[in-house]
Amino acid sequence: MSAEPQPQSPWQTATITRIEKCTPRVTSFWFQPSRPFIHLAGQHVDVRLTAPDGYQARRSYSIASAPGAGIELAIERLDDGEVSPFFHDVAEIGDEIELRGPLGGHFIWEASDGGPILLVGGGSGVVPLMAMVRHRTLQKSAAPMALVFSTRVWDEVIFRDELIGLDDRRDGFDLVLTLTREQARRPSDYSRRVDARMMMQAMERLPKAPRLAYVCGSNAFVSAAAEALIEAGVPAGLIRTERYGV
Asked: Where in this chain does the record put each FAD-binding FR-type domain (predicted)?
């Protein structure tokens, strides 16, 4: 994520305990930190890699796991990146890395906050929103929640099976997928970029107007989605945004 590092949070080592492929370009890594780590849904961590010559590269990644469920980072491969190729090509279970966090205090949701909540994610911007979805499930929250998730193609829908499974439960969570470069695979989904009409239809799945809306993705996506929400009638003061990028 794009948040500035917070110096008051110390670095610590964390061991990779599990690796799982999510999509062709996104892989999840689970970490066991060396010290206690308690986060909120929506927060992120800084990751630091140090080369043998002392050169350091640092990136921020949102936490995909719910509070109390360990640390899962879903890392997208960026071919020109300094950190993501290491995780995709080199990292193995048992390796130790340095991380700092949890970081971020604005883009968070707790079950006690209630709802309805509207989540809008583009690509890997779904990661912190997934932490909120999972937190709702683990807490058995009855807060109504809808997720609008935009990707280019079906195979790039991160956490696809898990999200569809949660949607099928019909317990107050609704999933809206929109594919920008393929035809929709489900009757309730879309085949276009996010727009005001899509936001209005997503809000119709909630019992009343959203208490808060969270938007995460690239700069361009966040700008377009926030504008669509405002056009759909969501007050700007209720929209929380998080942008990712190198």
From this structure: 9-109
